[in-house]
Prior knowledge:
By secondary structure, the protein is of the alpha/beta class.
Amino acid sequence: MAATMRQLSAISCHDVSMVVTAGAGTGKTFVLVEKYLNLIQDQGYRIRDVLALTFTDKAAAEMKERVRNTIADRLKEDPDNQVWKDAHEEMVIAPVMTFHSFCAQILREFAIEAGLDPGFLILDEGQSLAVGREAFETLIRRPPDEINEPLIRLLAQVEKYHLNLILNSLSKNPETFERFKADLFDDPGKILNSWEKFLEETRVPVIKRFFSDPDICDAISDFYRFFDIYRGQGDSAVRYLGMVCPVLQELSPDLPAELLHQIAEEFLKIRPVGNIGSKKIWDKDDLERFREAKACLIAAFEEATPYFSLYLERDSVFTRSTLSFLLDIGIVAEYYLELLRNIKRQANGLDFNDLIQLTRDFLNNHQDTVKRHIRPRYKYILVDEFQDTDPAQFDIITAITGVLNPDNRSLFIVGDPKQSIYLFRNADVTRFKEAQSRILNDCRGKLINLDTSFRSCREVIGCVNHLFSSILASDEKPWEFGYEPIMVCDDKKASPGSITVMLPGKAPKGSERFETKEIEAGMVADLVQNIVSSRSMQITDREGVTRPAGYGDIAILIERRTHLSRYTNALSRKETPFYVHGGIGFYSRQEIYDLYSVLSFLLRPYDSAALFGVLRSPWFGFSDPVLYHLHHIKGAKRGWSLYERLKACAERISRSHEDSEVDLEIDSDEDVPSFSLSDQERIVRASGLLGEWSKLAGRIPVISLVIKIIRDSGILTVYGAMEQGEQQAANLTKLIGIIRNKTESGYYSLFDLVNDMTISISDEEREGEAALDTLSQTSVNIMTVHASKGLEFPVVILPDMGSSREGRQDPILSGDNPHIIGVKIPDPDADYDMRETPVYTALSLIQKEKEAAERKRLFYVGSTRARDHLVFCGKQPDKFFDSVNKSSNRIDWVCTLFGITRDIAEQGGTISFNPGDGGKRINVTVLTSPEQLTRIWAHEMPPDLVIPENFEEMCGSRVRSSEKILVKETRAIRPVSVTDLQAGIRDFHPGEEDIQQLFIPDSSHLGPDETGTLLHQVFSGKDPRSVLASYDIKSPKAETFCTSLYQQFLNTPIIRNSIRSFQELSFISYSGTYPLTGRIDRLVQLNENEWAVIDYKSGKLRGSDLQMNIYRMAAESLTKGTVKMYLYSMVTGEYTKPRYLSEKEVNEKILKYMEDLS
Length: 1158
């Protein structure tokens, strides 16, 4: 793309250090790559001279690939250019890497100076959790004598779990805590002085704002005025004023904090119930103003009172208890940190936090080595996503560059503070403001704001500018940044786009709270279905081609996972394909937990709980009645495990089969309860497989064992018939990769694997789900806003915007100053109830302010993922505000800034706003019900009336010629069902014969079509018993028949030998201008490049050529591979191949059908 003037300035200016702020979609990566290449081309730097630091492996790989490809392109244009020849050869050693990779490289190179073994291992998240858990358990179970009493005192005041959290938190920055501990032991008064100063710095600005706020001053004055006017009246409002006015008169900014806090609490205690004030006594305007003033003061005091409480009573029992608690923490933490170091030293491992801390310490403590070896090596440093740095990472950068002064011209940092959303990972956005200030002032550097979006259309950019110019207006606090509007690039100005606000109504009064969430989720699912089926929402793809939006173009971005299942369930009900990107913790996925249960059983065969889970899972499919009878099998000895009972039952079943070749049913009077034939097979199969795997456990490598378990069980085939089988199979494959990586690092046993998985499951380690291939592009994408960062989608839906969010507070908080540590401990003066220390309260308030600011940025990130269409969705507000500062709710912000009133919210309609770019106003569609979706999105029109000729003269005039054509042209073309298309063409050929229709036992009330539909549901992997019950069939014979029919299909070579299998795959394809919609019964991958589409037939096979060829063409588009076609007869259990049709033949048949239809 052509660079803008600001981009060119950032790319070509090399005489000063620079800060580049890059809003979403403004070409940040383009600038970084071009800057990198410009340094090579114009400044004479070699590839190895330029250090580029990123925050993710993906970002590093993407940048490296872009640089490599651009160099290759320039070499093609100028093959003799020596600069690009050298650069191309050196790319293999290009220092483009993550912060953690860079730190690992430095520590290995200077291991002796850093006091490390150069062969250290990098512990992943799971291993790091395991080390922490082992250290804490050792501390609790085997404490040395010198910490025994302090440990007992701590456990008497806080729970074991909270103590673990405290120690784990302190281990993240041990040096800071060690400085605090040293000062606490040497001079507690010094610590108290720091606390008092910090509390005052936090409290005083709020007091000043409170007493200078004109709204608060006016409200207090109104209270005094109204009390003078209505004094003596027998009215509840007057009585209220009589109680609060004397309290308000005591207020003064000069009061001691303790007294100010008491007055504020006294005011809040006098809280009236209901809407006080009689219209008979009060003037109408006075009463309205009184109520406004009351609401203003109550809100102001509620906000300010926690800050008024920030004072320290130095000589109180609680303060002394706080110091004693922290002294005990210091003693115990010192031993805990040493345990951590010893365990890591024995494993020769470092976690990610160690890499950062040790590198910073090494660079700061060995400046001579840095000056001689590291600083000359990197002549220029590029830092990407700088808003996500933590303090230690910024220290590393400045340690390498040296003193930030005008001579330092080699630092180029890029970021967008509006996209800083990783506070929970200790990313400190204030560092961006600090770094920007130091580079601009100390280095006399340059600031460039990229101001043109290459991602989004005018509607989306106009909406973002309109909303966030107000939402992000404040830059008063260190963690707040103002908003600079951005422009739309010329290529996107004419692209179609839209803004929609969905405000579903609440569930009826008395309903459960979750029912409102269900309504909202259902409306989102309706919207998705209407977008795709109506084809009325046009998007512009990356090649600039305008086309209707499909499922894969839509992303639902959730703020948190709390209500994820409501959206997946709603989409499932609409049979909408979807793909959850890391939406559920990887180790919380049921398929991972099922394999974990298998492995737990193999490690401990007596673990009946694990085996219960395995047998009930899709791995073996035991029903609860079978498990019950299995557990109560006759002849079982006391103390037998479930596995011993399973083996005994399987042996008896096998003996009974050997004794009788005719009657395989076991009589209920025998030693084994009566099991159906299919249940007997399951029991024998489970016993055999578990026995075989048990013999191999511990004898073969764990990776070989896991692969054999998955292969022998046939679980991938089972998942292939389930709704989310594609994702389940991909996750198992990913787990195999994780296990393989661990085994390559050294000895890794079954015990190690089960232990690691136990820790990961219990600690909810957040491993993203496995990425899928091109098939996932046909599904609606569901992910968190955090996971979407760096991505873009043509259509973005932001749901659940009416929810509020409270962050979880840890039991210990710390500030920038090492002395500032706050905790929650029992208060001896209040019956030992848990109480926050004043420092903890102050830190908690600051944390909440940071979280509130970050939530605004999170909203910005979600909104800017949209290329063409942006949809906001949240429950209708209870109250409508005139300022975004009066609510912390995203849907409230949207309603306020778009001017959505209660009437508009309840009725729906179209409003507009001025985007301020000199162009026309932008419309916003407000929807409140699913019916409006159908009308507004689908643009459906009633079909033309066909009037019989003999009635033509009796009616008004018919619409003819040009008028009728105009109506047809403005109507959206509805997709044609492939099944209807095939039925209408009736494409039979000589020699084709029908096969007798299949009949299910005890289903005489079903017609052929109903039978076919029922069997298709069974073949999609649904439980036969449940499917039959929905058709009012409760016959065991019917269940056995359907089960055996499906099992026969799964045992066919094509399915049994397939690599992967997908069922009920929805698609929309095109024949010329005609959209076709259908659902492939089954798509299987035969080998690396070959696939097959399979259509089930419960009766006739003939006349399916066109249908199967359309399926083939759709599958080829999805898989980019060769696709075979098969018709599977449920009657014969055999496959037949339909006739191959060329694309031209297919299009001709469809065109003829559509012409006949019209």
